[in-house]
Write a structure and sequence with these properties.
There is one protein chain. This protein has 3 helices and 7 strands. It is an alpha+beta fold and 159 residues long. The protein has a 5-stranded antiparallel beta sheet with strand order 1-2-3-6-7. A two-stranded antiparallel sheet has the order 4-5. It is globular, with a radius of gyration of 15 Å.
Length: 159
């Protein structure tokens, strides 16, 4: 049970699709506790397991005072469009306007194996898509226009 260190680009785990959780074990329970404790910090909206070095499909969230998690999330539905600032704990200090669906719905399970449905618009919708991207081995920079992506990568290399 700990606040875990955040992995940053170019760490290869951030580019590796995460494995499905097949059995709820004490290690998975500890992972969820660590995800919840690590996301419970001002300014953090979501955190995927691979951002703390674990290649399993799980993420936590902290949106408008609601903190939770989902295991084996699947992005099932999106609609509408939003274009706004997006940042990432694994890409510290860089914020870029990013195009996302306005609404998103994710399904998964909790630690008891019960079905979980998370959905929302605006920030919640953006977070759901952002964290599912992480679990598929993508970071938000992948969604930027070519020139912005090139600039972001240049800035990261110069640090």
């Amino acid at each position: 049970m700990a606040i875990r260190q955040i992995r940053v680009v170019p760490d290869p785990i951030l580019r590796t699709p995460c494995d499905e959780i097949t059995t709820i074990t004490p290690a998975i329970e500890r992972l969820v506790t660590d995800l919840l404790e690590t996301v419970n910090d001002p300014g953090r909206a979501g955190l995927s397991a691979n951002q703390i070095g674990v290649g399993l499909r799980a993420f936590s969230y902290n949106i408008e005072g609601k903190i939770g998690y989902v295991l084996n999330p699947v992005l099932e539905e999106t609609s509408g469009e939003q274009y706004g600032d997006e940042g990432c704990l694994s890409v510290p200090g860089l914020w870029y306007k990013t195009r996302r669906a306005d609404y998103a719905r994710v399904t998964g399970i909790d630690l008891e194996g019960k079905r979980v449905v998370l959905e929302g618009k605006g920030l919640m919708g953006r977070m759901l898509q952002h964290e599912c991207d992480h679990l598929d081995g993508h970071v938000y920079l992948d969604r930027l226009e070519k020139e912005e992506r090139r600039e972001a990568l240049r800035l990261m290399r110069s640090r």
